[in-house]
Design a protein that fits this description.
Largest sheet: 5 strands, antiparallel
Radius of gyration: 24 Å
Strand content: 5-15%
CATH superfamily of the largest domain: Tetratricopeptide repeat domain
Order of helices and strands: HHHHHHEHHHEEEEEEE
Number of domains: 3
Shape: globular
CATH class of the largest domain: Mainly Alpha
Distance between the termini: 16 Å
Strand order of the largest sheet: 7-6-5-2-8
Length: 284
């Protein structure tokens, strides 16, 4: 599937609209076969059929079509359109899941990043309406432990690491060349401070690279797809409920027991969420 053969929804401000606003609109024609049937034989044709269904406002058919295409072709464009269509139906948890899958496969795609943030903000507004005496974990509170590791892309971190090391060695060379010039103390002081700053920057970027390699490579994640669900202190309803968690929250997972998933909470502690309320994120 070509990376440019997509009909994308670009404006999440139109989430409440009954139809999808496509980036390159064209008059849709009724599909000759259901999107799911097309996807079984030709993922590209199935993708187009699902797009046509979404353009007609037939979200159920579009969602089924995108899901059928993903079984054969887990492409970021398909996840993107699935997530945006799910958001239009109000299924915000699954929408976040699909857009997270798209971002994992296309981390530099501005459309994916924009729509994911917009859906997360909508999920946050819905989550704020969840009442009760228990603490409520909202989108944006999630994954505090690895937030810094994922805030920057691997390309950005690698580029920063390389540039700071080059700057450090350049500054050290300049200091060595100017060692004989004892009269220019101000210049040496400035170069020394700049070299220290570059060295600290190189260490910071190196730490981020090491952290991604050691922590994120082995980490597994899931997104809460239920409107809200309890977080228990153990794997079952008989344990104390310590919080409620709402749709769209992304969590690290640490194994399953008896249908319950052990998850890492924002404060660094652990809890248990029934596995049926979570959708696992798959590494591309």
């Amino acid at each position: 599937m070509s990376a440019r053969t997509r009909a994308r929804t670009l404006a999440l401000a139109l989430l409440a609209a009954p139809a999808v606003a496509w980036a390159t609109p064209s008059p849709p024609s009724p599909p000759s076969a259901p999107a799911t049937d097309r996807a079984a034989h030709d993922p590209q044709a199935g993708f187009q059929a699902a797009n046509e269904a979404a353009a007609r406002g037939d979200h159920a058919t579009a969602i089924a079509g995108y899901e059928a295409v993903l079984a054969a072709a887990p492409h970021p464009d398909v996840y993107f359109n699935l997530g945006t269509t799910l958001a239009q139906t109000g299924d915000l948890g699954r929408a976040v899941w699909a857009l997270e899958e798209a971002r994992a496969r296309a981390p530099s795609d501005d459309d994916v990043v924009h729509n994911l943030e917009a859906v997360r903000q909508q999920a946050l507004r819905v989550g704020l309406s969840v009442g009760g005496e228990l603490k409520v974990i909202l989108p944006g509170d999630d994954d505090v432990g690895t937030g810094l590791l994922t805030a920057l892309s691997p390309r950005t971190i690698t580029l920063g690491f390389g540039l700071t090391w080059v700057a450090l060695f350049g500054l050290l060379a300049a200091l060595r060349r100017g060692r004989a010039d004892t009269a220019d103390d101000t210049r040496r002081t400035v170069l020394t401070l700049a070299a220290v700053t570059a060295g600290l920057g190189a260490l910071a970027f190196g730490g981020l690279l090491a952290g991604r390699a050691l922590v994120l490579r082995e980490a597994t994640y899931a997104v809460v797809v239920a409107k809200s669900c309890p977080v228990q202190q153990g794997p079952g309803p008989q344990y104390v409920t310590e919080a409620r968690i709402v749709a769209g929250v992304k969590l690290r997972t640490r194994g399953e027991e008896a249908g319950w998933q052990n998850v890492v909470l924002p404060d660094g502690g652990s809890g248990w969420v029934e596995a049926k309320h979570l959708a696992a994120l798959r590494a591309p």
